[in-house]
Every structure is written in C-alpha cells, then in structure tokens.
Amino acid sequence: MAQQDTDQQHAGVLPVDDEGYVVDTAECEEREAAWRGRGTSRPITVVGNPVLHKECRDVTDFGEEFQQLVADMFASQRTAEGVGLAANQIGVDLKVFVYDCPDDEGVRHTGVVCNPRIVELPAESRRLDDSNEGCLSVPTAYAPLARPDYAEVTGQDERGNPIKVRGSGYFARCLQHETDHLYGYLYIDRLSKRERKDALRQMAENEPRYPVVAND
C-alpha cells in the first residue's frame, strides 16, 4: 500500500490494523447506540420495488444530510432486528450500507461502508459455506445459499476516508449480501428458480415483524 493511502486510512473514523483493515470490533455498543440515537427508523422496502433492482448511485457528498441518513439506517436496522442494511432497503438510491453483525466466533463488528467493492479472491483460497440466508427486504423467508466464507470489501467510511473491511463466516456473508444490494441484487436472485419461488412463497404466507413499504 502506498504511503499516502496509509496516511489517509489512519485519518479515518475507525483505527486500522497492521494490514490496513479497519478495526470495527471496539466500542460497538457505544458507536451503534450513538448512531441510532440520532436516527429515525424508516420502513423497509421489499422485493418488487424498483429501487432494489438497479445499481445505486455512488456517494459523493458526505455532509450532514448523509450523516442523518446513516443514523436513520442504524435506527431502521435495530427496529427490524437486522445485522446489515443497505440504503436502498429504506428507499434511498445511494451506495452505502451499515452493519452490526457477529462473526462465527461471536465477535461483534459494527461499521459503515460507502461505495463498496468485493475483492476477488483466488479460486484456490475460496471455501464455500451453504448456510441459510435471509433478507429484511424478503421478510420471513430463508434459503441456503453458497457463498465464500471469507470476504474483503474496499470502499469509504462515512466521512469519505478509504477503508478495507474483512470478515469470515456469518460476517463475510453479511458483507457480500449488503454489497449485492447496492448493485441491484437480492440474495434470492442467486437462487434457482424453484428456490426463489419457495422464498417468495414463505414471504407471502407470513407477516413481517417490522414496518415495510407495500408495493403498489
């Protein structure tokens, strides 16, 4: 990594480790509560709404309006009892997601990623995990979906500083799932036709436990 990039990362919101990845496991409770306390919970947009099915716009303005959006996202995520939330899931066409998610060892990770990109890993280093996956925008539905059990994402933090985030297990799934959202993909888009139909059936047969935006 170039020296300039390293200096920029150390000026970011979160500290970074020796390899340049954000340390998102410290003071999670305090940071999440501070964001949530400034936010207003919004209803969740569900599958079928056009905003979920197209690539979002890059975040270029990190001003006060954007900071309020991030706070609202944390508040909305807590209301829906989720571990990750993308902006288009509350109807906002911007590339940003928040997360408050444990990994398979129970370590909590909390943060914000803008304009994310998944780092492509060598095929020989990938190991697939076919655990169940769900989505706040497909409420009450779950299906097994194979994803790599380790993921790295590059992007920017909520102030525009360059960051790198990495995770394993459940947290790796979260990073991939939320990045997918911002490029117009739901997890059910990665299922077979039969599995997708079953997920939509589950959604139709059950009531969500949080407010949603009904599709016309």
TrEMBL record:
The keyword Protein biosynthesis applies. Pfam families: Pep_deformylase. It catalyses: N-terminal N-formyl-L-methionyl-[peptide] + H2O = N-terminal L-methionyl-[peptide] + formate. Its EC number is 3.5.1.88. It comes from the Bacteria. Keywords: Hydrolase, Iron, Metal-binding, Protein biosynthesis. The active site is at E178. Fe cation binds at C135, H177, H181. The keyword Metal-binding applies. Its cofactor is Fe(2+). Binds 1 Fe(2+) ion. Belongs to the polypeptide deformylase family. PANTHER family: PEPTIDE DEFORMYLASE (PTHR10458), PEPTIDE DEFORMYLASE, MITOCHONDRIAL (PTHR10458:SF2). Removes the formyl group from the N-terminal Met of newly synthesized proteins. Requires at least a dipeptide for an efficient rate of reaction. N-terminal L-methionine is a prerequisite for activity but the enzyme has broad specificity at other positions. This is Peptide deformylase. It comes from Streptomyces ziwulingensis.
